[in-house]
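Re: your question about tRNA-dihydrouridine synthase

S., sorry for the slow reply, the queue was backed up all week. Below is exactly what I fed in.
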Amino acid sequence: MCLKDNQLHPINLAAPLQIGNVSVRNRVVLAPMSGVTDMPFRQLAWRHGAGLVVTEMVASRELVNNTAESWSRLRAAGFRPHMVQLAGREAHWMALAAKIAADSGADIIDINMGCPAKKVIGGYSGSALMRDPDHALSLIEATVKAVDIPVTLKMRLGWDDNSINAPEIAKRAEDAGVKLITIHGRTRMQFYEGKADWDAIRAVRNAISVPLIANGDVDTQADAQEILRRSGADAVMIGRGCQGRPWHAGVLAGAAAPSPEKIPDIVVEHYEMMLDFYGEAMAIRHARKHLGWYLERFAPLLPVSQKAAIMTSHTRAEVVSRLRDALAAGVEISRSREAA
Ligand SMILES: Cc1cc2nc3c(=O)[nH]c(=O)nc-3n(C[C@H](O)[C@H](O)[C@H](O)COP(=O)(O)O)c2cc1C
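Result:
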């Protein structure tokens, strides 16, 4: 069941949500983020209590063409539901890719119609599809027809302020069999500028009956309640707020945040999971941004030279030992500040 105007507040974020025939354990979803929500990140987010996690977007044509990167993005992280996001501009490739994903164990297929990146919209996929609703619908219909698992749709409010068409597309997608809609409360032309418009999401709520997830600029539990109150959505999705704290979606859903003493262990574990997943050479590149986010959050006073030493260390042992020292010092500083 989805919640409409008669929604009661505050919403219980720990309550389960149903997407078609798939049960989701709570109402805080980790956003798909290319280059961030890879398998190690999703595993950590899940272990710390996120209700649902989504793969990085997988390009449909690349998947059909069997590229190593698309298979790496598609891989299940060892728990269910396994939600795979597909991007593409042709119904034909989307249908074939959806079938491959479903056959390889996906429980839910999400269609990406929100990505503003030029590389993606240059191929008229991502948010560019919102400029041509009829074409978008042909792609959605083909995807729904290709699989017997739930298909969901993630999009923005529209292309720009003069073409807010998410409510129309959402309704047509629901009629075509889509089981859940996610809205990032910005237009494509906003990229990530300004503030997400949580009130504007309500027009989508009023247009559809399937569950709705609201997304954009959620950071705290108060934000999560506020976006749900203003949009009338059933669940919340959080992306950048989880960078440097993969446990945060779970915390918004009611799980305990890790104690400051535990944080260095989690960071080192994440680093080692990336090494295992990518292999040492590639992992160092992937790990840098995550380590940067952790250090920004938990060791903000770390001298630049020490940060650089961590980022440029080339052996696992060296990175781990410098990282532990930096984070332990960061924890110590914040503890003594709290005590003062
Ligand atoms: C680095 C990065 C990568 C992203 N990659 C994807 C993606 O692969 N698929 C997608 O639908 N959205 C993608 N997004 C958009 C997010 O899912 C989300 O809609 C957006 O960040 C707004 O939520 P937030 O304010 O909580 O971050 C990406 C965002 C970021 C910052």
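The radius of gyration is 20 Å. Residues 82 and 106 are 5 Å apart (CA to CA).

Happy to talk it through on Thursday.
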